[in-house]
Amino acid sequence: MKARIAVLPGDGIGPEVTAAAVSVLRHIAAHHGHEFEFSEHAIGGCAIDAHGDPLPAETLIVCKQADAVLLGAVGGPQWSDPKAKLRPEQGLLRLRAELGVFANLRPVRVHPRLAPLSPLKSERLAGVDLLFVRELTGGAYFGAKTRTADTATDETRYTTAEIERVLRRAFQLARTRGRRVTSVDKANVLETSRLWRETTQRVAHEFPDVALEHQLVDSMAMLLLTRPAAYDVIVTENLFGDILTDEAAALAGSLGLLPSASLGEGTRGLYEPIHGSAPDIAGRGVANPLGAILSAAMLLRHSLDLAEEAAAIEQAVDRVVEAGVLTRDLGGSAGTRESTAAVIAALSERPTAQEAA
Ligand SMILES: NC(=O)c1ccc[n+]([C@@H]2O[C@H](COP(=O)([O-])OP(=O)(O)OC[C@H]3O[C@@H](n4cnc5c(N)ncnc54)[C@H](O)[C@@H]3O)[C@@H](O)[C@H]2O)c1
Ligand SMILES: CC(C)[C@H](C(=O)O)[C@@H](O)C(=O)O
Ligand SMILES: [Mg+2]
Questions:
Q1: ipTM
Q2: Nearest to 124 by CA among 222, 229, 224
Q3: Residue 169 pLDDT > 70, yes or no?
Q4: % residues pLDDT > 70 (the chain)
Q5: Is the pTM of this model over 0.95?
Q6: In terms of Cα–Cα distance, which of 288, 291, 294 is closest to 310?
Q7: Catalytic site residues?
Q8: 306 CB less than 6 Å from ligand 1?
Q9: Residue 277 Cβ < 6 Å to ligand 1
Q10: 87 marked among binding-site residues
């Protein structure tokens, strides 16, 4: 298979973790007979510095022509002045909107070896296998903003069509898993959430084989910590999904572990770890590359239809964790390169009988 992959390293640890993901994809291409063509483009703070625009026109054109986009992270203290006109994060939000990737899939699994790193007791973590589906191109992130000297507003706006399409994606995904959807809103207070809930109830009729429950976001924040194994697919709006998934990362042991896939109507997708540019550790070669590497696996599965290769990467990551080659955020001492090299070495090993079954 031939594929064009646009790589947007971005800021902070972004270049370190995308380099790791690209080297894993190169290994897959070489060993499975694929031709992946990579091209790097600017986004975020470094694009503001080089081009005066967090999403330069050239970057957007290449992303729209690519089969998939792999992104590191954007942002950092040097571009975080509240009065700044241009912000790195605007580039990422515009890219998501321009690509029409309205459904952001964020899987959360807990490797038993990492359970001690979680704030929860191991018995609560057994069987945790969540898939968050976060609406990605609507809500407060994209509503009108106003600002005077002492007042600011961010409009939260959702249309029925925006809610329906992300819900359908969540229900469809639930059919490939545990057939349970939890829809998270704040319908006791917010009008957008009341529209969300009404729409969910209607869309659920199209999926009679999938169980639906509603949960208010504040109690969901607690339930994620008290009974995380009770959930399967969790679908929610943009802002709630952003916050709940960072919380869920603590269950897995580190923000550095969680991947994501942002999908629209076609097969082209945007793939990025859920973490940010981690300015506190950038440039030191210690960032955990596994979230980015697992995002590359999602790219193979969702944009290139290479499910076997995707599973091979996921199994290799599991083996590396099992073997205890861990970066510092996971209590180990491996650097980014060592962790990446261990994944590539594990890819070359034969699958265990259990994995092959
Ligand atoms: N998708 C994105 O590009 C994205 C996502 C989140 C935050 N951001 C931006 O990143 C900047 C920093 O934000 P923040 O500090 O709140 O969040 P962050 O995710 O960058 O970092 C939070 C903490 O997690 C650690 N961490 C994150 N990723 C890690 C990894 N791969 N390996 C090891 N440790 C890791 C960091 O060292 C830090 O202690 C901000 O400008 C923010 O807007 C960007
Ligand atoms: C950087 C920011 C715009 C982004 C978001 O909130 O979507 C990040 O936090 C994420 O989770 O991808
Ligand atoms: Mg976030």
A1: 0.98
A2: 229
A3: yes
A4: 98
A5: yes
A6: 294
A7: 141, 186, 218, 242, 246
A8: no
A9: yes
A10: yes
